[in-house]
Amino acid sequence: MPFPPTPMTIRCPFCGQPVQVPVRQIIDVSEEPHLKRLLLAGRLNAFICPRCGNRVSFAAPFLYHDPEKELALVFIPIQANLKEVDRQRIVGQLTDAILRQLPREKRRAYLLQPKEFFTIQSLLEAILRADGYTDEDLKAMEERTLLLQRILNARRMEDAEELIRENVEKIDAEFFRLFHEALATVQEEGSAEEFARIMAIRDRLLELTPYGQTVRSRTQIIEKFTRAPSGETLLEALLEAPDPETRRTLVALGRPFLDYRFFQNLTRRIEEAEAAGRKEEAERLVALRREILEAREAVDQEVRRIYEERARLIRELLSAPSERELQERLIQRIAEIDDIFFDVLQMNIEAALEAGDTRLAQALNLLGQIAMAILQQTLPPELRLLNVLLNARSEEQRRRILERNRRLLTPEFQQWLQQMEARMREEGRAEMAEQIAAIRSLAEQVAATPAILRPS
Questions:
Q1: pLDDT of residue 270
Q2: What is the C-alpha separation between 110 and 93, in angstroms, rounded?
Q3: Interior CA angle at 60 toward 55 and 66, to 5°?
Q4: Angle at alpha carbon of residue 81, lines to 78 and 86, rounded to 5°
Q5: Radius of gyration of the chain measured on its C-alpha atoms
Q6: What does the pLDDT look like over 86-123, one tens digit per residue?
């Protein structure tokens, strides 16, 4: 059972506004694996100030528990300047909290002597080492992080380009992972101008580095498939894919097409190559078939895992004693409120109705309504506007919405839309990209039309 966050009042260091925030004090990755991702990304125990809009991270003691690796790690921020007796009291309270909730058969000796850490960096290194990272890996990660900071902090695009050219060998998949974490943080904070600036840097990374060029090639192949998805176009894309990562992405996107007919076509190609004496081609196709089967199994396992996680989340949310507590839990778990969450929620509603449990169906419906409302509230103004525009029924309705939100139609917003369009194309979401392109064109028209001439 997940450990609920503790509500605390934190004063924003930028504007002084006191904010009620949920604080995580127990992180059990077997129950809530997403918390590990937040911790590693530097986004655990953080909030957006509702008054000034700044992102605030704060240091609070917590216990990190990974039963699979037998890790019990306690973080006590050094800036708290606690006396030994107070420090031991906090460690004892956190340890007791997790021991009380664990069944007796799962209590292990390592939980009685948790390792203490006084800086987040040292704790993160311990977690990564347990995941198999070596000292060399950690050093390389630190170098990439410093390089990323230098590139993102460059005053001019020319300076960023120079840094990119000088460090092309360090700009790899791990660098792009760190880059996208930074991008997600900026997007979360809602600065359209900063988001557009970082997306422009991303364009230069794609253009100027070998790995970026591979990513761009991958994007083009994926987009080609998603424009006309079928078993035939999926097979052609897989044959053209430059690397295993592209093929894994294609398998995930094209999972519904990996049926008997697909493998029959692939087998026919293998037999034709063998009959024509093209031994190398036949071997390559056999290896591709094996790779596709393995990737399909991995995709299916991951989908099952995510659906199970969302089902557990729904059960936890339904156990909230009040609507206010439900809202607080939803805000804390906002990263998991996605399409799969609503898909699982709908399946639960249908199952409840079939079983005649109208009370449960009503509770699930209410949960969905509150989740959707919170999702809308937590979006930055630009994203909220884009979401409304995407759901508009006609161009005329979109025009009226844009008229009412003219203050948001800045050059930065236009550039942000352009970057969002490019991002959708890169992810293979061609239909969404076309919708955003149409919205951008209409927004430019509305912004360029003097108010007195605009149609009523």
A1: 96
A2: 16
A3: 105
A4: 105
A5: 25
A6: 999 999 999 999 998 888 888 899 999 999 999 998 99
Q: How far apart are CA 43 and CA 188, in angstroms?
A: 11
Least Cα distance to 398 among 350, 442, 351 occurs for 442
Question: Could you give the 3-state DSSP secondary structure of residue 338?
Answer: coil
Coil/strand/helix, residue 31: coil
φ and ψ at residue 48, rounded to 5 degrees: -100, 120
231-240 and 279-318 are packed helices; what angle lies between their axes, rounded to 10 degrees?
110
Instruction: Write out the two tokens for 454.
Output: 């605009």
What predicted TM-score, i.e. pTM, was given to this entire model? 0.54
Tokens of 16: 């002084």
Q: What's the confidence (pLDDT) of residue 455?
A: 40
User: DSSP for 391-448?
Assistant: T-SSHHHHHHHHHHTGGG--HHHHHHHHHHHHHHHHTT-HHHHHHHHHHHHHHHHHHH
What is the C-alpha separation between 54 and 14, in angstroms, rounded?
Answer: 7
Q: Confidence band (pLDDT; 50, 70, 90) for 195?
A: confident
Containing 18, the helix (H) or strand (E) segment is: strand 18-23
74 within 8 A of 94, measured Cβ to Cβ: yes
Cα(61)–Cα(41) distance, rounded to whole angstroms?
18
CA–CA dist 67, 88 (Å, integer): 22
Q: Is 382 helix (H, G, I), strand (E, B) or coil?
A: helix
What tokens appear for 348 in the block? 């639960």
Spell out the residues 6+ positions from residue 132 whose beta carbon is closer than 8 angstroms to its own: none
- In the block, tokens 């309270």 appear at 93
Q: Cα torsion at 353, 333, 149, 153 (round to 10°)? A: 80
